[in-house]
Amino acid sequence: MPTAIHTPINFSRPDMRISFLHTIAASQPLFDQAAHDLNINADRFRHLTQPELREAIASDRFDAEAKSRLHACLQDLAANADAIVVTCATLGPVAELFDDIPAPVLRADAAQAMAASAEKGKLTVLCAAESALASVGALFCSYGKGADLVTVTHLPEVWRFFTEGDHKACHDGIVAAIWQAYAAGADVVALAHPWMAPAAMSVKGRQPFDIPHAALKAVMANLNSRQF
Description:
This protein is α/β, with parallel strands linked by helices and 228 residues long. It has 2 domains: 18-107 and 213-225, Rossmann fold, CATH 3.40.50.1860; 111-210, 3-Layer(aba) Sandwich (Rossmann fold). Helix content is 45%, strand content 14%. It has 10 helices and 7 strands. α5 crosses α10 and α7 packs antiparallel against α8.
């Protein structure tokens, strides 16, 4: 059973300054809530939302201008920051290519994949967006868990509810899928999109890994141990 990731943490450096780069505005309150759950002071968080960057990558229009804009965003966020968290899975692989950002850059999806893959047993990743299925599977397998132990389950109905703005049906669908994954033999469950995080709070006893909590735990642990 995975470690409960909503357990408050006693960090020794409460004054850490973390910047976040989002492509969906709804991600900000999810990371702020995760900070509250983990007893992390969010007063020194800085959030920047750039939906145009995700749209450029998704439509294969990530040209030199878009790359320059991403670079400028990261440079701006690095000012007075101990670390930057890129919360968009589509943007993450591009953002980590820059080697001149004066603050460490952490991919939120990679932090979750690393934490979940370190757990023993079979891992099921619940993914709503069909376009992300292949990249999600490759990411989780890249952390040493064999492909025979990783299952990526597509939830098209959840994606439809999400895009239609039916929040209750979306939430209920995710919770049902979590329990179905455990019933089917999963030892560990991970939620592939940050917006899935609220559903994790409804699963008592066997909390799945969600991106906001896993990413904050990773960035704070690295900063406290000075691994960044």
